[in-house]
Amino acid sequence: MFERFTAAARAVVGGAVEHADRTGSDCVGEPELLLALLDQRDSPAAAALDRLGAPRPAVVRDLAADRRRGGLSVADTVALAALGIDVDAVVARVEETHGAGALAGGGRRAGRGKRVRRTFAPEGKAVLGRALRIAVGRGDRRLGDEHLLLALTAGSGPAGVVLAGHGVTYDAVARVLAERSARRAS
């Protein structure tokens, strides 16, 4: 499958594994893929994010907050607040007892200097599969980082929710990519 990936898409996948290593996550999921996409500079996805005015530091901050809350989105937090549950208080209490980032899902770390082979979480695999379907559906022969960005925005997972909160939706990304393609064709 990876032979169809552009260099930028391969860099995103490799970067996602590195992000999982840094955070201690057992698996590579949507947040790691999005963080790796945000690291890109001279690529179609980076250009789309720049064109849409996606504030990279704010997106990273929102992903970290989502992770700290154990994957609960802002919308989940608001819904629970309507039921009288203060998620921030629950998180603070858990961290008080179990340490900072206890709900973040940090995985087991290898011994000093050892690397752990990171696998893709089902949500990460779903993004890759969706990206491949998007590339084929658009008639593209190669899977680029723009297809990964479209796949993230097409899903309802943490990355898609955070991106949508910053105006980066599937339709907005598709429009920007179409404009870019039209400019290149003329």
Structure description:
The protein has 186 residues and is mainly α. The protein has a single domain (2-70, 122-185), classed as Clp, N-terminal domain (Double Clp-N motif), CATH 1.10.1780.10. It contains 10 helices and 2 strands. The two termini are 32 Å apart. The model is unreliable at 107-113 (pLDDT under 50). This is Clp protease N-terminal domain-containing protein.
User: Using only CA atoms, what is the Rg?
Assistant: 17 Å
Number of domains: 1
Distance from N terminus to C terminus (CA atoms, Å) equals 32 Å
Residue runs with pLDDT of under 50 for 5 or more positions = 107-113
Pfam families: Clp_N (PF02861)
GO biological process, one term: proteolysis
GO molecular function, one term: peptidase activity
Domain Clp R: 2-185
In short:
This protein has ten helices and two strands, in the order αβαααααβαααα.
Keywords:
186 residues; mainly alpha; Double Clp-N motif; two-stranded parallel ribbon; 2% strand; protease; Clp_N_dom_sf; Clp_R_N; hydrolase; peptidase activity
